[in-house]
Fold this protein.
Amino acid sequence: GAVVSQHPSRVICKSGTSVKIECRSLDFQATTMFWYRQFPKQSLMLMATSNEGSKATYEQGVEKDKFLINHASLTLSTLTVTSAHPEDSSFYICSARDRGGNEKLFFGSGTQLSVL
Amino acid sequence: KQEVTQIPAALSVPEGENLVLNCSFTDSAIYNLQWFRQDPGKGLTSLLLIQSSQREQTSGRLNASLDKSSGRSTLYIAASQPGDSATYLCAGLTDSWGKLQFGAGTQVVVTP
């Protein structure tokens, strides 16, 4: 089946630093990728929709300048948390949709971000 | 805006019992509904996908139903096993691009 690789799986950083998370579709091309955030015991909340070659679409309440998304190719999207603060500590997970039109979405394994 | 609710939030059953997990959504205009499994600190594993035109899907011990008119979906897991312990999430596909609206999940514990 389709595989989405997400790295790193866990990152601990100091407050004020930036963290980049990568999401790769390994065996299919993804024109659209999604970034979610999940706080403990809460639902996944969509942060933004990433389209290859164009600007990401952010959900209401998500700061564009803080969560930078780049979708430079059909197999790679990155999320950069800039000037991270402890309240940004969360589980971040990406998903990708097969360009071939398969309605199933494939998820990465997630990144646990802890900001000290 | 689509809202997805899952009840109960947590469930504990002895091994061998059947599991019934409920999901309700406020907007019946969904493209499909999916059930996922999430293990602690891990990503999501897709279990079943029900198209809006379908009423149920089955895979092994899992069966999911969809009733758009009442805004409900139910996931049945037959003869539960300790390995079924996980959080189960339902999500409705709300647009053609792939935007999913998730419920908060039901945390399941199956005791040996």
About this structure: The radius of gyration of chain A is 13 Å. Chain A touches chain B at residues 6, 32, 34, 36, 41-46, 49, 91, 93, 95, 97, 103-110, 112 (CB under 8 Å). The mean pLDDT of chain A is 90.
